[in-house]
Structure formats: C-alpha cells, structure tokens
Design a protein that fits this description.
254 residues, TM_pro_TauE-like, 12 helices, mainly alpha, TSUP, transmembrane helix, membrane, Probable membrane transporter protein
Length: 254
C-alpha cells in the first residue's frame, strides 16, 4: 500500500465502532443487492450510535455510489426512466432543505426521527399497505419532494419511494429497477450537496471508501442471489434485518 494511503486507511480502521459499521454495511449490501433497497434502513439506525447525523448521511450516500456501476446497468432496461427522472427532479430542491433541518436539530432528535420513519416504513411493508389513489403527476412530484427532504434530513431517501412503487402493484423486477435508479441518482445529489456545504471532510471520505469494500462485496453477493421466484423469501429476510437494525439503533439503549 502506498505510504500516502496507509495513514488514511489506518485512521478509518481505528474509527470508533468501525467493525460494527462494516458488518452492518455488509448486511445492508446483501439486502440492497437482492431487493434494490433497504441499505439505508439498516445502516442509518446503527450508524447513529457511533456517528453524528451528518456523517451518517455522508457515509451511506458515498458507499452507495459504489452500487451505481454494479446495479444500474442491469436495472436500466427494466425501469420506468421517465418517471424516475421526474422523481429526481422533484427531489433536487428539497435535499438542501433537509440538510439544513438536520444541521439545526440535536443528534438525538434526528435519531428518533430516523427510528420513526424506519419503523413506520417497516410496519407499512409488513402490513402490505397500498396507496389507493391515482398515480398522477402531482402525486409523483410530491413523492419525489418528500423523498429528497427525508434523504437530506436523515439519509433515508428510499422509504417513501419504495412504498410508492410497492403500492402501485408493479412486478418485483420493475420496482427493484426503478428504486435502484432513483437511489443511485439521489446518492449523487446528496453527496454533491454535502461537499458544497463542507459537511464531508477527508477523514469521512476515507472512512466511506474503506467501508465501501464490505458494502460492495455484500451487494454483489445479494445481486447474485436474486431470483424472482424467491421474492417472498427475500422480502421476509429483508424485513427481519431492517427490524433488527431499527430496534438496535433506538436511542433508549444509550
């Protein structure tokens, strides 16, 4: 390893809670690989134990950028790219607002917000909640805007969009592809906003780079495991892992 990289990598490995973060991201990567979503729902509650909210958001966005090259090409052909593009456009102005709210709130309050939204998403997925209204242009714009706000405030960009797509009654392949494209685009948007505001310093960038290794490994494993015929099994496994992460990340344990 070049001498210039050794101190940065050593500093990342020595970060408090590093191995918990690495194991959590490996599990998150597996779930993301075979479902197309869920990594933030797993990582963000656990990471909040060891990191301030802004660093949690920076790391999950940075490591998920590693998924773009691995997942997007396969998802591109199956996605409704026009609708995903509209969701991203609607989210662009609300991501900075979410970051501003996050920066103004106490870290413990942010953790409770994360727990509430992650837990609420989990309950909705388990109960099989379905959006009964028509999927109109204003609805799509509103979903994108809310997703951007939550992504900037908590790092949980996906839940609103995932519930939106699951409610639409689409097949698993399309839901997975749309979610992959949206989350990939939002990772780039969030990282760009973090860099512009100076929220992501080099130590966090290096920590994210090192943590991307277990995440990417898990994600490739999950993608290799994905078979549409096992959709129900994947769903149960993903919901179980998300539930454990939400419970473990509750501020009451500290």
């Amino acid at each position: 390893m070049p001498e210039t990289l050794a101190p940065a990598v050593a500093g990342a490995l020595a970060h408090p809670g590093f191995w918990w973060l690495a194991v959590t991201l490996a599990a998150a990567g597996i779930v993301r690989g075979f479902t197309g979503f869920g990594s933030a729902l797993i990582f963000v509650p656990i990471a909040g134990i060891f990191l301030p909210p802004v660093h949690v958001i920076a790391i999950i966005a940075l490591v998920e950028i590693a998924s773009i090259g691995a997942l997007v090409p396969r998802a591109w052909a199956h996605a409704d790219r026009g609708q995903v593009g509209l969701l991203v456009l609607a989210a662009l102005p609300t991501v900075p607002q979410g970051l501003w709210i996050m920066d103004a709130l106490d870290a413990t309050i942010v953790r409770w917000i994360v727990a509430a939204f992650a837990g609420g998403t989990l309950i909705a997925l388990i109960s099989g909640w379905h959006y009964a209204g028509r999927i109109t242009l204003p609805v799509v714009v509103a979903i994108g805007a809310v997703a951007g706000l939550l992504g900037g405030m908590t790092g949980l960009t996906g839940p609103v969009v995932v519930l939106f797509y699951l409610a639409g009654g689409r097949v698993a392949k399309t839901v997975r592809a749309n979610t992959i494209l949206f989350l990939g685009a939002m990772d780039l948007v969030i990282v760009g906003n973090l860099l512009l505001r100076g929220f992501a310093d080099m130590s966090i960038i290096w920590l994210a780079a090192v943590l991307s290794v277990p995440y990417f490994t898990g994600m490739i494993t999950g993608q290799a495991l994905f078979q549409p015929s096992y959709e129900a099994l994947y769903r149960r496994a993903a919901l179980t892992v998300i539930a454990l992460a939400v419970l473990a990340g509750l501020p009451i344990w500290q």
